[in-house]
């Protein structure tokens, strides 16, 4: 163990994070609190010695010796089978160190060693005297920090923000309705063209085997073809008109809701400016101004 200097233990006691400074003064390697718990516990025991001795008013030279005394006691009692043997070792060490301490400080050190080490001897032996198998599971979690808030000058009242969100939702719904109407028109036009082609193909005359098909249609077939084509177009036009009327009603309903929202805009919570004061408040403000001028005169 590296010998501590009086100035070193003084800095350890005065620093808020003196435990790490004590480790460096003892020339220990950085400790892993998880994989080497014994080293961390031993460092805690020595750091508590510094706090005890300095708190009791020991001279800084004696504080350094208390740390050395505790470290030697923990080493020499390792593997002791009984508390009696540990007490004997403690008594012999106190005799060896009695010329380095005053009678009062030696008695305080004896009480401290008895109340900490001897009282918890079995625990010290179990923790510091036996190797432990550590089963450690490490899980790396990603912490998502909150987004950077906007400047307060760009903020708005909650009611105003909710109003804007409702208006934006109605506008988005209206735009979606318009897209659906365009897609429906295209689908109806494609269906109309497919039906017309299917009808025209079914009216084409087919020749028998070994003969050529006729080059034209008879009057009755042509009239029937025109009648079928007109019927298909009228039916498709009716479907388009029905869809457009229904969609127009939906869009008008959305616009009506927007209009109602525009009539119920939340009022600003900011106090009114002097120019917006009512007649009563304006009179009171004028009287207060006149009284202030009179007092100044």
From TrEMBL:
Biased amino acid composition, Basic residues: 284-297
Disordered, as annotated region: 271-297
Coiled coil: 167-198
Annotated keywords: Coiled coil
Pfam families to which the protein is assigned, alphabetical: CLAMP
Protein name per UniProt: Chromosome 8 open reading frame 74
Transmembrane portions of the chain: none
